Each structure stands twice: as structure tokens, then as C-alpha cells.
Amino acid sequence: MTASLAGALSGGGGGDMTERKGAEAGTEAVPGQRENDGGAGRRPEDEPGRGVIVAFGQTMKTLRVREGLEREEFGRRLGYSASTIASFEQGRRIPTPQAIDRADEVLGAGGLLCLWKEQVERAQYPVRFQGMAQLEKECAELLMYDALIVNGLLQTEDYMRALLGMRRPPLMPETIDQRVTARLARRDIFDRQPAPLLGFVMTEAVLRQHYGGTGVLRGQLEHLLLLGQKRNVEIQVMPLNCEENAGVNGPFTVVTRKDGKKFVYSEAHATSTLEADTEHTVLAAARYGIIRSQALRPRESAQFIERLLGEL
């Protein structure tokens, strides 16, 4: 971790730098942070987050029992089933911020449960992505290039589940549910005000992969067309017959924070990096500009996606 990177984080992201396990809210993932598989679908990097979720669930259960509420009644007041309340209390599911607010009110916790919201929200993500998740909340612009799968912000729930279901070793069902919930929550970025500028370039190969089957792909392509109609969103396709592509080094994201500070995020097989070095971020932004110029324009890309839909 370089001094410049640590300084950039402390200057605007909030929170202390933690290098032992990777990125905390407002900090970057440690360059080269590994995501090693750990047994039956749960990875070592998930354990710190799981500890937070379990501790929150135990706290909520303690308050519920103190109030003399059965799970059925407590769930009714929150709008959940008794089995979902049990999942919250056992740390198998992560409640939404709204559910935490309501639980605090129903249990008369006086803000005690609300104190957990930030930590619980952060725990939804793999440790290596937590820094990037925080930056998404603070960004004025996101520029993303993808060559393997549809970007997480653009994925439908069916597409998410198909991808997560293909992980090896297999992820536990509750881990898949948590990842899906967290990824869906990130969609808030599309409706945020003031709206950040969001640019996506993806290769044609990404759009031709039948992950999850033809029905899943059809739904995903239709979803891309809908999102592409938003005024703050540009979706572009890099066709397979394009003879030049400045993105041959792989997928990456350029983030510009509201204070103008730029970051570059990238993932490989089992590592991720989040850089703040000025030279790296400037070059990455320039590279994205070249990629954008080489890809089909947004209107042409929408027409291209429509043709792909017609082929299914």
C-alpha cells in the first residue's frame, strides 16, 4: 500500500485504512489481494463480513426476545416471514437498511440496530470489492470496460444467479442470495440525484454467451436496451470484427469521485486492485477514451443488441 494511495483514501473516503483483510469503506482493496477458495463455498475473505452479520443477527434476536415477540409477530410487523427473520438472526441473510430501521423502531432499540447499518451494508460485499462499492456511492463518473461478462451494475437477477451458480467450488445458497441482494442494491446508482455519468463498453462476445440459457440471455439483452435509454447512461458494443481494441489488456473501471479524484479498479482470476496513482489513472482514462472511440456508438450499439435479440 503506497503512501499516496492511503492518503487519497483518508482524504475523502472516510474510515480507517485496514490492510489485514483488504478494503474497508472509503479505502482501496490491497493491490494483489487474493480471494482463495475456502471449503464448501465460503471463502476466507467472507469471514470478517460474516462475523458482522452474525453479531447483528444475535443482537436483533436478543432485543426481540427482550420485547417478548415471537418471530411470526416480529416478521409480520416488518413485512417478512418468520423463516426470513430466522435467517436474519442466524446470519444467513442480510437485511436491507430499511428493514434495520423498521426493526429498530419495532423493538424500541433507540438507534442501537441503526448503528450497525453501515457495517452490515459493507459486509454484503467480498472484502476485495468493499473499497470499490464505497467509491460507487461517491462517484461523479464511472467508466467501465468489460470483456468477460456483463458488468455487475447491468446484470439482471437471473443473470447474476447463473454466474454465481457456476462458481467453483460452489458457493453456499445463502452466500449466493447475499451477493445477489448486494448487487441489486447497487442499482440505486442509476436513479441517484445528481445523476452520475455512467459509461459501459463491452465486447460482442459478452453478449453472445448463453450463461443460464437462452431465456436468461434474452432478458439480459432486453434489460440493456432499457438501461441504455437513461440520459446518464451510455452503453457501447465492441464488435468481434473490430480490427483494433485498446482494451486487450482486460476489463477495468475508471472512477471519478465528486472531488475530482480518479481511481482505477481491475480484477483478475483471484486478485483485485484499486489504484489512485495519478499516472495510472490518467492513462486508464485515456485508454478508455480510445476504446470508446473504437466501439460502436450508443445508438448503433442499441441496434446491434436488437439484432442479437432477433437471433435468439
Describe this structure in words.
By secondary structure, this protein is an alpha/beta fold. The chain has 2 domains: 3-38 and 126-311, 2-Layer Sandwich (Endonuclease, Chain A); 45-122, lambda repressor-like DNA-binding domains (434 Repressor (Amino-terminal Domain), Orthogonal Bundle). It contains 13 helices and 7 strands. The protein has a 7-stranded mixed beta sheet with strand order 1-7-6-5-2-3-4. Helix 8 (157-165) runs antiparallel to helix 9. The longest helix is centred in the N-terminal third of the chain and has 20 residues, at 47-66. Mean pLDDT is 85; it is low at 1-45.
Give the total of domains: 2
Strand % is 5-15%
Radius of gyration: 21 Å
CATH architecture of the largest domain: 2-Layer Sandwich
Biggest beta sheet summary: 7 strands, mixed
Extended strand count: 7
Distance between the termini: 47 Å
* Helix content range: 40-55%
> What is the average per-residue confidence, as pLDDT, rounded to a whole number?
85
**Order of strands across the biggest sheet?**
1-7-6-5-2-3-4
* Total count of helical runs of at least 4 residues: 13
Instruction: Give the CATH class of the largest domain.
Output: Alpha Beta
Reported by name, the CATH topology of the largest domain is Endonuclease, Chain A
Sum up the overall morphology in one term: globular
Alpha-beta content class: alpha/beta
Organism: Streptomyces haneummycinicus
Region (Disordered): 1-51
Biased composition (Basic and acidic residues): 34-49
Pfam families: DUF5753, HTH_31
